[in-house]
Amino acid sequence: MSYSDFEPVIGLEIHAQLLTKSKLFCSCPTQFGLGDNDNTCPVCTAMPGALPVLNKQAVDFSMKTGLALNCKIRETSVFARKQYFYPDLPKGYQISQYDKPLCEEGFVEFMLNGEKKRVRIERAHMEEDAGKSIHNGDHTLINLNRAGVPLLEIVSGPDMRSAQEAAEYARTVRQILLYLEVCDGNLEEGSLRCDCNVSVRRKGTEKFGTRTEIKNINSFRFIEKAIEYEIHRQIDCILSGEKIVLETRLYDPDKNRTFTMRSKEEAHDYRYFPEPDLLPLKVEQAWIIESKEALPELPIARATRFTEQYKIPQYDALVLTTEKTLANYFEETAEVSKNPKAASNWVMTELLRELNNAQKDVSNSPISAKHLGELILEIDKGTISGKIAKSVFLEMWKTQKDPVRIINEKGLVQISDNSSIEKMIDDIINTNAGQVEQYRAGKEKLFGFFVGQVMKVSKGQANPELVNELLKTKLKG
Amino acid sequence: MDLSQFKVVEIANAVKSKKISAVEVTQHFLSRIENLDKKINSFISVNQHAITEAKKIDEVVASGKDPGLLAGVPIAVKDLLCTEGLKTTAASKILANFIPPYDASVVANLKQHGAVVIGKTNLDEFAMGSSNETSAFGNVKNPWNLEYVPGGSSGGSAAALAARLSPAAIGTDTGGSIRQPASFCGVYGIKPTYGRVSRYGIIAYASSLDQAGPMAHSTEDCALLLESFAGRCKHDSTTSAEPVPKWSKNLRDDLSGMRIGLPKEYFAAKIDDDTQKIIDQAIKTVEKRGAKTVEVHLPLVKYAVPIYYLIATSEASSNLARYDGIRYGHRANMQEHKVKTIDELYSISRGEGFGTEVKRRIVLGTYALSSGYYDAYYQKACQVRNLLRAQFLKAFESCDILMSPVTLSPAFKIGSRVKSVLEMYMNDIFTTSTNLTGLPGMSVPGGYSANGLPIGVQITARHFDEQSLFNVSFALEKHLVKEARSPHVI
Amino acid sequence: MITKETIQHISKLARISLTEQESTQFSEQLSTILKHFEEISELDTSQVLPLVTASEIAFHWREDQVHQEVSPTKLVANAPEKSGKLFKVPPVV
User: Which CATH code for domain A418-476?
Assistant: First the structure.
């Protein structure tokens, strides 16, 4: 028996913090970064007599997300208390949804190595976040600013069969959340959290193996590596006759390994029961239909439209639609330049490179989409060559000025009149008689030398096509 | 004029018309509390700012502005409702020094109407009990006979009222906790329809059963008090948007056309002779006022006590999880107990802070919700609850009001019922159905037992039909013949 | 029959320390009580939905607006142990 006899079975639970202004059950701000315990009230600090009141916007965001994940929306869903003791859970229970969640039976699709994959979404339900614990050795400090922030828990089916697929699934879900503008999807800061359930089984068997849960992974790269490690670890265990323990594990990125979080896993008895302080949540058909119609264009649909409307390859379309902001940027550039192919190239190569180097997001790009579009227009008009355009681009990045202004200020307008170029060529032919003779004798490689000379003399501004054309003619003799 | 005998309505009118000042009224009752409460222990704390607050009411009156429906009326508030700046203990060691930074909505409404919170009344710890014998601050004594219980859990409110230490009181009722003490102490008390009154700021016992309600010396007083604080509350998702009628302005003692249902199963129970006599008189009285009585069948009421205790303790076990000594309340001394872990701290703090009855109910409730038992206990109880409600609604097709005793017998001696827990629980036989079905219920003074203890009559109406309750209560108040007596503690 | 062990397990779940006497007492009392309550199992509830809220009440939302009526500093004021504005507890495993 070897590794290849096994297949991994992976499911992901993603918690998305919703971008509402106030918390799920009270009007405290969700805004990050305020003073310790300043975002609190009797409700989220579980004072005696405090009661929850549901934030309508959170329901709206949750429903939109469910619809974007192709889920069925339950017309009557129920909140339930999930009970356990932990100091950052002030009530001693979390208000969540248990057997009647808001969204069920959905799916997402994405491309993986050229193949289309579909992963089921078993459910997506609403719940409140807990506070934060700060462990300081001999004591722990509790900050309840985060307690009560709305979360949507998205649970996939155990459908993924590789670490790569799992990471791609997670990226896809995140992408949808950002497109809907319901979550800012920040794994590092924790506005998006991903728990991975991993098990292995012999290929061909139907029964699931014992799974482990890996928590608190804060990047997609690490999600892939952690799962990869865990798959191997489990197979190693089984091959050496050990049993897999049902447990929660953490990932150590420095050592690239997972390790047990708790030495003895106590099965929680959450004693779920319907939340008596809230009525069952009724969502009318009319609202569901309205929400579905109001969904923005989602990533896959947008990519498809890009390939059809702008006639760009699927690969480009997928890259450009990775982030909604990038897709918006591209479309504006394409619009202004009237050259989608060029827009696509410039955005994907030059712009993304500069953004990555400067660690900037496209929404903070010093070059606006309008200006990039104008730059492309100038190339297409023949004002400047593509090569010059690259330096104009860098100048635009540095100064945030528009391209026409830079071209004029630096006198970069392309030399495109025949007589000027002919004069330059004549001069060069006259001063390089030797090379001319060699060229005419058959050393065709020297053509590049002459082109170079013209460019040098013209400071790169000679229109390359014209240079080629006229040089050929003149060199013929 | 003896202010002690003044009704709420009379006080409010007198203060509004400047015949008397709010300060005078408050001072009067504060003095009575100081002199007499040591005999009955009905107050846990007295409001040290009461006079200052009364003064403000007088200023409003003087300025010509409307001081509200309850201008200058002192109110005794059950120490289960949060009062801003005033200690709120739930009669428990675990909250012995808790000072809330907010008012319960009920309290805020009362204050808006010019009432003065005179003090916080004693109760069974966390409202769990029917005799006010489980308070961490000592038993409350029935003003009618100091050896007897006042009832519970709103024992302090009922006793304070009966002893005329306050003209009005607020209680809460989860399984009978307003109606039973009202009956034992000879005062009027109403548990409104579930959803009529906000539970925000009221320390939760059983979320789907709790309702706060007024207790007073007349139907009109109860109606007026309830008008001042009933209604939709933005902080409580379980409050109804049903408009609040002006019940006190529409009281009728003519009951022609009204059908009074007498539940067969209630009357088949072992009701004591004194109680039977009074209920018979009440039936005769309403018939004289034009009502027709009809027998109704409610066979499921035999399951009311079991399902009440399963549901209430389950919800309570969850509601009381927040009392962990971390953000407020009693916290165990870590050195003394050599506490090293958070779980130890939880267990010891809660073990020290909660009394035995509370612990018993938390254990029962946790068990009923636990894995393997949820279906047979909690879920089953909720299903039976559904059947019970349906049966009551069916009964209301043939009547408009249900009438029955409040309890099998009047108040009992302090300490006489502590041995059998089950027996204690089974006493709630007539009152728990009202909470389980969400219907409004009221206790109306009916008379006295042979040994001088008050006995009340219970009436129950359809959801949101408090007007019918008040009307029948009004009819009984005016026409049920009973001696005018006073507890001799006064 | 609810054994003492069960009572101890439940008290651990509920984080409430009980004395020996309380454990024994509760074991007896709850056994008696639950035995009596078991009569509810004689009812056929197979087609019955559980009832949680007994009155007809229209659903109650909140608009997504920020509003803090109680000053947060007042909320930490009752804390038995704190560090700055943070609640302080023994180390959490």
Answer: 1.10.10.410
- Ordered mean pLDDT values, 10 residues apiece, chain B (490 residues): 92 96 98 97 98 97 96 98 98 97 98 98 97 97 97 98 98 98 98 98 98 98 98 98 97 97 93 96 97 97 96 98 97 91 95 97 97 96 98 98 97 88 88 98 97 97 98 97 81
Contact B385 C50 (CB under 8 A): yes
Give pLDDT, residue A263.
53
Give yes or no for A313 touching C (CB within 8 A): no
Count of domains in chain C? 1
Complex ipTM above 0.95? yes
pTM beyond 0.95: the answer is: no
Is C28 contained in some domain?
yes
- Give a yes or no: residue C35 inside a domain: yes
Whether residue B468 contacts residue B461, with contact meaning beta carbons closer than 8 Å, is answered with yes
Q: Which of A208, A195, A12 is nearest to A110 (CA)?
A: A12
Residues of B with catalytic roles: 78, 153, 177
For residue A468, the surrounding DSSP H or E stretch is helix A464-476
Cα B389 versus chain centre, distance: 22
What is the residue-wise DSSP string for A251-291? EETTTTEEEES-SS-PPP----EE-TTS--EE--HHHHHHH
pLDDT number for residue A266: 61
Whether A141 sits inside 8 A of C67 (CB atoms) is no
Q: Are A168 and A60 in contact (CB under 8 A)?
A: no
User: Is residue A150 within a helix (H) or strand (E), and if so which, with residue range?
Assistant: strand A150-156
Residue among B366, B207, C6 at smallest CA distance from A83: B366
The two tokens of residue A426 are: 């004549």
- For residues A257 and A249, give the distance between their C-alpha atoms in angstroms, rounded to a whole number: 10
Residue C21: give the domain boundaries: 1-40
Domain limits of chain A?
A: 12-198+269-289, 297-409, 418-476
The answer to whether residue B267 neighbours chain A at the CB level (below 8 Å) is no
Q: B373-394, pLDDT tens digit by residue?
A: 999 999 999 999 999 999 999 9
3-class DSSP assignment, residue A415: strand
> CATH number of the domain that C35 lies in?
1.10.20.60
Is C71 inside any structural domain?
no
Task: Provide the shortest C-alpha distance from residue B488 to chain C (in Å).
Answer: 38
Residue-range domains of chain B with CATH: 3-259+474-479 (3.90.1300.10)
Contacting chains of B (3 CB pairs or more, <8 Å) are A, C
Residue C52 inside a domain? The answer is no
Of C18, C53, C78, the CB nearest to B351: C18
Best of A34, A140, A248, A284 to substitute, by most chain C Cβ atoms within 10 angstroms, is: A140
List the single best residue of C86, C88, C93 to mutate versus A (max A Cβ within 10 A).
Answer: C86
Q: Determine the distance in angstroms separating the CA of C75 from the nearest CA of chain A, rounded to an integer.
A: 7
N-term to C-term CA, chain B: 16
Chain C: give the shortest CA distance to residue B349, in Å: 8
**How many whole angstroms from its chain centre is CA B272?**
24
Mean pLDDT, each 10-residue run in order, chain A (477 residues): 91 98 97 89 98 98 98 97 96 97 97 93 98 93 97 98 96 96 93 96 93 91 95 94 91 92 70 97 96 94 94 93 94 96 95 94 94 95 88 94 91 83 89 88 88 88 87 83
Residue in chain A closest to B315 (alpha carbons) equals A276
* Residue of B270, B290, B258 whose CA lies nearest to B407: B270
**In this predicted structure, what is the pLDDT of residue A477?**
67
Model pLDDT, residue A382: 84
Mutation pick from A27, A37, A43, A47 vs chain B, by most beta carbons of B within 10 Å, is A47
Contact B328 A42 (CB under 8 A): no
| CA distance to A45, B95, B108, B328, B329, per residue, from B99 (Å) | 15, 9, 16, 9, 10
